[in-house]
Amino acid sequence: MAEKKKQHYVPKFYLKFFSIKHNQKHIKLCLKKSGEIIHQADLASQAQESYFYGKDLEREKWFGTIEDTTSIILKEVVKTKTLPKNNSDDYYWIWLFILLQAYRTRAHADEFNDIIDKTMKTAMKFESQFKDFEYDKYFFAYDDAIEKTMNILLKSLPMMRDMQIKLLLNKTTEEIITSDNPVSKYNQFLESRKFPYGHNGMASKGLQILYPLAPDLMLLMYDPKIYKVGNRKQFSQIVINEKDVGVLNLLTCLYANKVLYSTNNVTDFHFEQLLEKSNKFKNQKKLELKYFDPVTNDDNTESVIVQHHKTPYMLNLNLSFIKQTQHAKSYKLSGYYSEIRDESYRNKR
Question: The dihedral of CA 341, 347, 348, 349: what is its sign?
Fold first, then answer.
């Protein structure tokens, strides 16, 4: 069991795409909180915790099996700068890998437990027995938060089948960076409509998911009914410019939990500038709760509905490779607390 004690929530094979001089043993890192930079950090010890997925090793082995298959596919993508054929088995392995990466990190587990804690405490305030409860002294959380979030994701995967993947190519002198929470989300469509509620739910209309793959490559998963990315039949080598790289790196920085990673071609000054820019937006993403008056049930008990959503980062993104479709431009918001992708469109795929 000892050899499985260190369990990575960002795979080693992935971090090697950003290794120093391609030696696959060291990586440059920047600590997000302090700005401290380590120029040759040990790659194998990054983004891992002891028994992060549990001591029974079942989930660790499950991820290992998926990584064995996906690593071969992604290594070929990095080498050729080309995605597998659309809707092929290899294509959907990448699709699955991106979504799993979004839900398997320490940052996501902490965010999930933050929702649990605040929801529980909000509901408890309606119970007279907790009127003297010292809320600040306790934190409600699941020890197996990752297992809980994985179960949610796996049950929700069918609603993501309509999301399209394309590969962005960076030919500029500015490299793409990654982090210990590499997947970031955005929604230019709902941002442009000034939608006041959650933007980045799995079923949200206009959702965009970004995954840095290498210093010169970025995977984009997006709602194809809302956005046009490159030409209709162009799935790879969609060229992005220096301004695009800058804002995409800023988004990666904002989503990072504790650590940013790069090759040694990214300067210390670049990291310093990135952290300074991110400070202007770091307080935007927060959990907001809304509760409704208690409802009396048939058995004379009371129920309280607590609604929550995460306020999104709002960077006013203007990306050169994305345009909104005519459907997006003519779409009228429903007026509900969430805007859901078109169900009938999903069923046609």
Answer: positive
Q: What is the pTM of this model?
A: 0.92
**CA angle, corner 148, sides to 143 and 154, nearest 5?**
155
Do residues 321 and 244 make contact, with C-beta atoms less than 8 angstroms apart? Answer: yes
What is the full DSSP assignment across 6-53? EEESS-HHHHGGG-GGG-SSEEEEEETTT--EEEEEEGGGSSEEETTT
CA angle 57, 58, 63 (to 5 degrees): 95
Distance between CA 321 and CA 234 in Å, rounded? 12
Integer-rounded Cα radius of gyration of the chain: 21
What is the full DSSP assignment across 222-279?
A: E-TTTEEESSTT--S-EEE-HHHHHHHHHHHHHH-SSEEEE-TTS-HHHHHHHHHHHT
What residues does 278 pair with on adjacent strands? Answer: none
Spatial distance between the Cα atoms of 102 and 255, rounded to a whole number of angstroms = 11
Please write the tens of the pLDDT for every residue from 279-307. 999 888 887 877 777 788 888 877 877 77
Neighbours of 51 (CB within 10 A): 14
CA atoms within 13 A of residue 120's CA, in its CB half-sphere: 14
Give the count of alpha carbons within 13 A of 164, CB side only: 22
1, two tokens: 């069991």
CA–CA dist 334, 195 (Å, integer): 11
**Residue at token pair 């915790």:** 49
Q: How do residues 109-123 score in pLDDT, each as one tens digit?
A: 999 999 999 888 988
| pLDDT, tens digit (0-9, with 9 covering 90-100), for 102-112 | 999 999 999 99
Q: How far apart are CA 262 and CA 39, in angstroms?
A: 10
Query: Are the C-beta atoms of residues 206 and 193 closer than 8 Å to each other?
Result: no
* Cα–Cα distance for residue pair 318/329, rounded to 1 Å: 16
- H or E element, residue 345: helix 343-348
Q: Which amino acid is at 267?
A: T
Q: What is the pLDDT of residues 17-36, one digit of tens each?
A: 999 977 789 999 999 999 99
Bridge-partner residues for 229, per DSSP?
Answer: 322
Decide: 238 and 226 in contact? Cβ < 8 Å. Answer: no
